[in-house]
Amino acid sequence: MTAGDDPLIELQMQLAHQERTIDDLSDVVAAQAREIERLTGRVAIAERALADMVEALDRAGAPLHQKPPHY
C-alpha cells in the first residue's frame, strides 16, 4: 500500500505541507514587519531633514513658492 492509497496518510502529508507553508509565510510576514519599521524610521528622518531645510530657507529669506524667472 502506498501513501496515495491511504487517505489518512495523504491528509497527514497535506497537513504537514500546509504547516510548513504557514511557518514560511509567518517568517515572511515577520521580515516584512521589520523592514516596514526600518523604512518608517528612515522616512521620519528624511521628513525631519526636509523640514529643517525648509525652515533654514525660510529664515534665509529664500522664495520657496515663487516660480523661477524663466516662467
Structure write-up:
The protein has about 70 residues and is mostly helical. The protein has a domain at about 35-60. About 75% of the residues lie in helices and about 0% in strands. It is built from 1 helix and no strands. The longest helix has about 55 residues, at about 5-60. The protein starts with 6 loop residues before the first helix and ends in an 11-residue tail after the last helix.
What is this structure's SSE topology?
Elements lengths: L6 H54 L11
Quick take:
This is SlyX family protein. 76% of the residues lie in helices and 0% in strands.
Total number of helices: 1
In whole angstroms, the N-to-C terminal distance is: 83 Å
Order of helices and strands: H
Strand content: under 5%
- Approximately how much helix is present in the residues? over 70%
Biggest pleated sheet? none
**Average of the residue pLDDT scores:** 90
User: What is the gyration radius calculated from CA atoms?
Assistant: 28 Å
The strand count comes to 0
* Low-confidence sequence ranges: none
**Silhouette:** rod-shaped
Organism: Marivibrio halodurans
Keywords: Coiled coil
Protein name: SlyX family protein
Coiled coil: 8-56
